[in-house]
Amino acid sequence: MATDPVPQIEEAIGLWTGVQCPNEAGRRGLEDFCALIKEFEALRGTMVFEDEPATFEAALRAEAEPEA
Questions:
Q1: Are 25 and 34 in contact (CB under 8 A)?
Q2: Which of 3, 11, 21, 57 could form a disulfide with 26 if both were Cys (CB 3.0 to 4.6 A apart)?
Q3: What's 67's DSSP letter?
Q4: Residue 34's closest CA among 3, 68, 67?
């Protein structure tokens, strides 16, 4: 991956939507987006569904339709 992915992100957005980055505030927003992606990448492999099975089961029961 490039050192600064913002130009590539801008290009991809332009290709997919036809919208160009309007100003410096928009570019800063993209930089925030890059930081968010890095935070999610750092979590990869650390979170698993089975961490809270009791909570998940309780949520399923709470949302279950009442029996007729």
A1: no
A2: 21
A3: P
A4: 3
Dihedral of the alpha carbons of 9, 15, 19, 24, in degrees to the nearest 10: 30
Q: What is the average pLDDT value for the chain, to the nearest integer?
A: 80
Q: Using N-to-C axis directions, what is the helix angle for 6-17 and 24-43, rounded to 10°? A: 110
**What domain range includes position 51?**
6-62
The tally of domains found in the chain comes to 1
Whether residue 1 is contained in a domain is answered as no
Q: Is residue 20 part of a domain?
A: yes
Answer for the pair 13, 19: CB distance below 8 angstroms, yes or no. Answer: yes
Higher pLDDT, 40 or 55: 40
Judge whether 67 lies within some domain: no
